[in-house]
Design goal:
- By secondary structure, the protein is α/β, with parallel strands linked by helices.
- It has two domains: about 200 residues, Medium-chain alcohol dehydrogenases, catalytic domain (Quinone Oxidoreductase, Chain A, domain 1, Alpha-Beta Complex); about 130 residues, Rossmann fold, CATH 3.40.50.720.
- It is about 25% helix and about 25% strand.
- The protein is built from nine helices and 17 strands.
- The strands form four sheets. Strands 3, 4, 5, 8, 9, 16 and 17 form a seven-stranded mixed beta sheet that branches.
- It starts with a strand and ends with a strand.
- One of its GO terms (molecular function) is zinc ion binding.
- It catalyses: a secondary alcohol + NAD(+) = a ketone + NADH + H(+); a primary alcohol + NAD(+) = an aldehyde + NADH + H(+).
- This is Probable alcohol dehydrogenase AdhA.
- InterPro entries: ADH-like_C, ADH-like_N, ADH_Zn_CS, ADH_Zn_typ-2, ER, GroES-like_sf, NAD(P)-bd_dom_sf.
C-alpha cells in the first residue's frame, strides 16, 4: 500500500514527510482492517506534521477523518461484516475504568489514544481501528462528504454544546473552515442566529450562503452582543475581542487542540458579568453518535476540496495558507 509518514515534524522547509510503499497492516484482536476511500485533512494533522504537537508515535501516518470499507475482521469482532462502510475518528481508545470514563467524560481519559497521532491513520490505502471505536455512517452522503464529519463535524458539535448557546440565541463563530461551516448549520437548524467573523472573503460568502445573519472580518465587532461564541481559528489574539463581544452571561468555547498565546485579559471588559471561557478537548463516542445521527436526519451541505492521496503535502500547504474552500479531503478509492 501507499502511506505518508511524518519522519521529522517541522516547518515545510525542514520537515521530512514522505509517501512510501509498504505492506498493508493486519487487524489485531478486536480490530477492523479498513480500505480507505477518503480521508479528511484536518488542522490537527497540520499540527502533527509541523511539530506543534509533541511526537507520540515516531513516523506516524496522519489522518483521523477516515471513511472506508471493512475488508477484514480481527479476532473477537462482532457487529461488523466485510463491505460495511465505517468511519475512523480522532478518539481511538480509552481505558474505560478511570473516573473520567466512568462519569461519561471519556474525552478526558488520561490513557486515551488518538488516530494519526498515537496510531497510524488514514493518509494511506489501508488503516486499522478498534471495532469499539469505529462509527456507523449516515446514508445520503458521498465518501468525500462524510470524511469531514468525523472530526470537523463532531468537534464542531461538541464545541457548540460547550458554548452553552441558549435556544434561539445569537452565536458568533470566529474562523470559518471545515468545522465551523458544519457547526453553523447545526446551530441554524436548531433556530440560532449566527454571526461569522473571519478574514477570508470566500468564507464570509459561504457563511452568508448557508444562512448566517452577518459575516465580517475576524476582529470586527458583531452587529449585536452574542449569547455564545466559538473560536475555531487557532489564533489566541482573537480571544479578547470574542470575549468582549459576549453579552452578559455569554460563553466562549475554544475548539482547537492548539492555540497561539492569548494576550492579557482585562477583567472588567472581558470576563465580568459572568462571561465564561471554555476549552474543548477531543470528543466522546456519544458526541459522535449524536452528531452523526443529526447529520442523518438533517442533510448538511458539506463543502470539500478534493486531492489525490499523492498530493497530501499540497493539501496541508493549502490548509496552512488558507487556500482550502470548506474541507480538504484526500480521495484514495
Amino acid at each position: 500500500m501507499h502511506a505518508w509518514h511524518v519522519d521529522r515534524p517541522g516547518p515545510a522547509e525542514t520537515r521530512k514527510f514522505e509517501l512510501r510503499e509498504e505492506p498493508a497492516p493486519r487487524p489485531g484482536p478486536g480490530e477492523l482492517l479498513v480500505r480507505v476511500r477518503a480521508c479528511g485533512v484536518c488542522r490537527t494533522d497540520l499540527h502533527v506534521v509541523e511539530g506543534d504537537l509533541p511526537v507520540h508515535r515516531p513516523g506516524v501516518v496522519p489522518g483521523h477523518e477516515v471513511v472506508g470499507e471493512v475488508i477484514e475482521l480481527g479476532a473477537g469482532v462482532a457487529g461488523f461484516a466485510g463491505g460495511d462502510r465505517v468511519g475512523i475518528a480522532w478518539l481511538r481508545s480509552t481505558c474505560g475504568v478511570c473516573r473520567y470514563c466512568r462519569r461519561g467524560a471519556e474525552n478526558l481519559c488520561p490513557y486515551s489514544t488518538y488516530t494519526g497521532w498515537d496510531a497510524d491513520g488514514g493518509y494511506a490505502d489501508f488503516a486499522t481501528v478498534p471495532a469499539a471505536y469505529a462509527h456507523r455512517l449516515p446514508e445520503g452522503y458521498s465518501d468525500a462528504e462524510l470524511a469531514p464529519l468525523l472530526c470537523a463535524g463532531i468537534i464542531g458539535y461538541r464545541a457548540l454544546q460547550r458554548s452553552a448557546l441558549p435556544p434561539g440565541g445569537r452565536l458568533g463563530i470566529y474562523g470559518f473552515g471545515a468545522s465551523a461551516h458544519l457547526a453553523a448549520q447545526v446551530a441554524l437548524a436548531q433556530g440560532a442566529e449566527v454571526h461569522v467573523l473571519t478574514r477570508d472573503p470566500r468564507a464570509r460568502r459561504l457563511a452568508l450562503d448557508l444562512g448566517a445573519a452577518s459575516a465580517a472580518g475576524a476582529a470586527a465587532p458583531p452587529p449585536e452582543p452574542l449569547d455564545a461564541a466559538i473560536l475555531f481559528a487557532p489564533v489566541g489574539d482573537l480571544v479578547p475581542p470574542a470575549l468582549a463581544a459576549l453579552d452578559r452571561g455569554g460563553t466562549l468555547a475554544v475548539a482547537g487542540i492548539h492555540l497561539t498565546d492569548i494576550p492579557s485579559l482585562n477583567y472588567q471588559e472581558h470576563l465580568f458579568q459572568e462571561r465564561q471561557l471554555r476549552s474543548v478537548t477531543a470528543n466522546t463516542r456519544q458526541d459522535a453518535h449524536e452528531f452523526l445521527t443529526f447529520a442523518g436526519e438533517h442533510r448538511l451541505q458539506v463543502v470539500t476540496t478534493p486531492y489525490s492521496l499523492d498530493r497530501a503535502d499540497a493539501a496541508l500547504a493549502d490548509l496552512a495558507n488558507d487556500r482550502v474552500h470548506g474541507a480538504a479531503v484526500l480521495i484514495t478509492g
